[in-house]
């Protein structure tokens, strides 16, 4: 992969597929102006789509090969490999992520776009978790000299989540900030079933949040799809909420015996390398469906600016 992740020129060809289309769903709050930017699902490819990395206190994961290294204090290797944005975990329920502050400050020094996500656990009220999330992002931004910077807001939802829990979190973030956060789903058959059977009112709220999907292989997260491999567009269709997905986490890790192992979507129809660029560590990697201009417009729409 190496430097090939940098953006290349794009062609203004409209997306035609149903779930491969708009960036923000049918609610009219998406990016708009999406363009086809390469081969593969939804017009995406690793080499020609804007690259976004997400991290937590588990990062950097162990060194697994020769190559560049990074830490929460120095992200220059990520930027050299073409990453445009970094989304760092703020907390998992009440448990604060101890590296969140350093990751945001380091990404800002590299000129990267900043993002934050909160893992919404089942043991606390989701509206209360939304309050904690917004308060923490504001506090960290002010303490690390990030006032005036845009910070993308993301809710990461457990596989046991229900439509009402998503709605409570989303609506509280919107009440506090005036923006709708991005929705990242820990996919499972049960979660897809619950969300596809949500009420029209619940779907209308959830649809206002762009869908960030996680799919590391054509077998999905639990099983091989009947009648063919699971693709991002097919996964999106199963929720029966969004008209299209916006970001795709195509690469992540699985944990075995206390160590991480890279897992990534790599088929003849959509290729990706095992590692990100020349990094020595495995990474959680994402592509954005659109060009760099579309990414920046999307970021602006779903970010807060801390005064």
Order of SSEs: EHEEHEHEHEHHEHEEEHE
Strand tally: 11
Fraction of helical residues: 25-40%
Distance between the ends: 39 Å
Q: Total helix count?
A: 8
Give me the Rg, rounded. 18 Å
Main β-sheet, spatial strand arrangement: 1-2-4-5-6-7-8-10
What is the general shape?
Answer: globular
Summing up helix and strand content along with how strands pair, one would put the structural category as alpha/beta
Low-confidence stretches: 1-18, 21-38, 222-226
Q: Major sheet: size, sense and barrel closure?
A: 8 strands, mixed, barrel
Brief sketch in words of this structure:
By secondary structure, the protein is of the alpha/beta class.
Can you walk me through this structure?
Strand 2 and strand 3 form a beta hairpin. This protein has 307 residues and is of the alpha/beta class. It starts with 50 loop residues before the first strand and ends with a strand. It has eight helices and eleven strands. The longest helix has 18 residues. The chain is globular, with a radius of gyration of 18 Å. An eight-stranded mixed barrel has the order 1-2-4-5-6-7-8-10, surrounded by five helices. 50% of the residues are buried.
Please describe the topology of this protein.
Layout: E1 51-55, H1 76-80, E2 85-92, E3 95-96, H2 100-109, E4 113-120, H3 126-143, E5 150-157, H4 163-177, E6 182-185, H5 189-196, H6 200-206, E7 211-214, H7 232-239, E8 247-256, E9 259-264, E10 284-288, H8 292-301, E11 303-305
Parallel strand pairs: 1-2, 2-4, 4-5, 5-6, 6-7, 7-8
Antiparallel strand pairs: 1-10, 2-3, 5-11, 8-9, 8-10
Helix pairs in contact: 3-4, 4-6
């Amino acid at each position: 992969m190496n430097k090939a992740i940098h953006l290349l020129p794009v062609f203004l060809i409209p997306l035609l597929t149903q779930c491969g289309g708009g960036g923000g769903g049918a609610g009219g709050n998406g990016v708009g102006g999406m363009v086809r930017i390469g081969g593969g699902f939804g017009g995406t490819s690793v080499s020609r789509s804007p690259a976004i990395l997400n991290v937590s206190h588990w990062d950097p994961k162990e060194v697994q090969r020769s190559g560049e290294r990074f830490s929460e204090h120095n992200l220059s290797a990520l930027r050299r490999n073409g990453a445009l944005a970094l989304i760092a975990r703020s907390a998992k329920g009440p448990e604060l992520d101890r590296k969140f502050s350093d990751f945001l400050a380091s990404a800002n020094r590299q000129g990267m776009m900043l993002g934050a996500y909160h893992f919404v656990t089942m043991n606390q009220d989701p509206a209360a978790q939304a309050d904690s999330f917004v308060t923490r992002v504001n506090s960290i931004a002010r303490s690390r000299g990030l006032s005036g910077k845009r910070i993308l807001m993301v809710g990461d939802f457990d596989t046991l989540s229900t439509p009402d829990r998503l709605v409570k979190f989303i609506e509280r973030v919107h009440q506090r900030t005036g923006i709708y956060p991005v929705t990242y789903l820990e996919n499972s058959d049960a979660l897809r079933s619950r969300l596809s059977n949500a009420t029209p009112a619940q779907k209308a709220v959830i649809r206002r949040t762009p869908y960030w999907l996680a799919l590391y292989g054509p077998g999905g997260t639990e099983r091989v799809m009947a009648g063919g491999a699971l693709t991002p567009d097919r996964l999106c269709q199963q929720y029966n909420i969004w008209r299209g997905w916006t970001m795709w986490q195509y690469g992540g890790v699985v944990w075995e015996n206390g160590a991480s192992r890279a897992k990534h979507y790599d088929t003849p129809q959509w290729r990706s390398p095992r590692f990100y660029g020349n990094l020595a560590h495995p990474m959680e990697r994402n592509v954005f469906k659109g060009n760099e201009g579309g990414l920046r417009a999307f970021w602006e729409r779903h970010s807060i600016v801390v005064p």
